[in-house]
Amino acid sequence: MKVATILTDLVEDVEVTSPTEALEAAGHEVVLISDSLDEVKGKKGTIFEIDQTIDDTRLADYDALLIPGGFSPDQLRTDDRFVQLVKDFLQSDKPVFAICHGPQLFIQTELSNQLQLTAYESVQPDLRYAGATVTDEPVVFDQQFRLVTSRNPDDLPAFNQAIVMTL
Which site in 5, 23, 127, 144 is 20 to 30 Å from 166, CA atoms measured? Predict the structure, then answer.
């Protein structure tokens, strides 16, 4: 299966590398997508080579979506192209995986009030105010939207297991 991963500068490095390793070990292809083909630099200095731009990304080409955290999601949610892609995935019955600050993007989709999820501690109130049902647990699975969310890098082992099992 092919997993679209959306990111930009200041993404949380390990929230890209760890799920990517788990997905690839399970035989899935991970494609890094940003607003341009320029390299993306993580918060800890990891350089990520971008495979494709958002303008060339189509829902039909992917089986799932991964949204890593850090400061990247806050930047991506101001770009309607990324918001629309996330909304399309949520409405498509294709799995969506988001960790840490990643669920911030759901607020702009106007679907938050239908979602059950978790997120980084400081993001949880924003999601509640947007109408989401927020639980403070390592992994939350929303069956209706095939949405898997986690809170922070400490949750990566459980998150990685959940996303691989979902595919």
Answer: 127
Q: Supply the residues annotated as catalytic.
A: 100-101
* CATH, range 2-166: 3.40.50.880
Q: CA 31 to CA 66: how far, in whole Å?
A: 10
- Tens digit of each residue's pLDDT (9 = 90 or more) over 36-85: 999 999 999 999 999 999 999 999 999 999 999 999 999 999 999 999 99
What are the boundaries of each domain within the chain? 2-166
E strands along the chain, which residues?
Answer: 2-6, 29-34, 40-41, 47-48, 52-53, 64-67, 96-99, 116-117, 133-134, 139-142, 147-150
Encoded tokens for 77: 């949610």
